[in-house]
């Protein structure tokens, strides 16, 4: 198992060296009129997404969605029309994949309007598509701990599917293990899709969880010593007792001097 994760971690960290999310990028953004179109998207957050950033949700292009590891990433997005839009723009969280290569993001209507100057939101909506500038920023869930939800697809006693929620900082989860509390016999989880991980060899009893988390080029283990009680329920939501708040510190090469102003 150690070799598996060292290999997995090497591949994941190597892939982040090809791009820097924290650089400023220019593209276009469109919007969905209903946030439910994004909450029910490829990340699998469902109704949980309503609690993210005031429903400022986004579908991101594949290089930002990253086959699901980009789920839960936060971005500052602002439109470039100074007559309609503010300098600060708004923060959004990735909850879906945008397979239309004409825009990097499709935002919820609320997030799209939030880029506008006061009383200009409806005017911005009339554009439909806006030229934007964006960069990745840390997610902040106001003190909420990393949380897991037992998905309805779970079938006791062997098959267990978990949705990961409230992943803070500028991080990506690239690996996960689960074991009975007090045991050193770990079973690895596989990303089923988006933010949902699963195993067909779930241990019995109360469960602990450990994650391989990357932040930029840096990777580390995060260990939740007790995340599911022995009587865990399908549909249950469980606080891990730990926070993920790492922020990448290394430089981004040629874009180091770019300033959001």
TrEMBL record:
CDD domains: DPBB_EXLA_N (cd22276)
GO cellular component: extracellular region; plant-type cell wall; plasmodesma
Residue ranges constituting the Expansin-like CBD domain according to the UniProt record: 158-240
UniProt keyword terms in alphabetical order: Signal
GO biological process, alphabetically ordered: anatomical structure morphogenesis
Pfam families attached to this UniProt entry: DPBB_1, Expansin_C
Expansin-like EG45 domain residues: 40-144
Signal peptide: 1-19
Family (UniProt): Belongs to the expansin family.
Name of this protein: Expansin-like A2
């Amino acid at each position: 198992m150690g070799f598996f994760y060292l290999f997995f971690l090497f591949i994941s960290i190597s892939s982040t060296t090809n791009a820097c999310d924290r650089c400023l990028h220019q593209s276009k953004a469109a919007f969905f009129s209903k946030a439910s179109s994004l909450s029910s998207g490829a990340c699998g957050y469902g109704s949980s997404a309503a609690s993210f950033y005031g429903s400022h949700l986004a579908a991101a292009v594949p290089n930002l969605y990253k086959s699901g590891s980009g789920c839960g990433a936060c971005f500052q997005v602002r439109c470039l029309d100074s007559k309609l839009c503010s300098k600060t723009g708004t923060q959004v969280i990735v909850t879906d994949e945008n397979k239309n290569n004409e825009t990097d993001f499709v935002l919820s209507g609320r997030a799209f309007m939030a880029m506008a100057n006061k009383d200009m939101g409806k005017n911005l909506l009339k554009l439909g598509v806006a030229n934007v500038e964006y960069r990745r920023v840390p997610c902040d869930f106001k003190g909420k701990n990393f949380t897991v939800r037992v998905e309805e697809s779970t079938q006791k006693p062997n098959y267990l599917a978990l949705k990961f929620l409230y992943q803070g900082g500028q991080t990506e989860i690239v690996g996960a293990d689960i074991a009975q509390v007090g045991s050193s016999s770990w079973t690895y989880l596989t990303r089923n899709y988006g933010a949902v991980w699963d195993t067909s060899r779930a241990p019995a009893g109360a469960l602990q969880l450990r994650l391989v988390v990357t932040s930029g080029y840096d990777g580390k283990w995060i260990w939740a010593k007790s995340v599911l009680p022995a009587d865990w329920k399908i549909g249950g939501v469980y606080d891990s007792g730990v926070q993920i708040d790492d922020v990448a510190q290394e430089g981004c090469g040629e874009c180091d001097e770019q300033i959001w102003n």
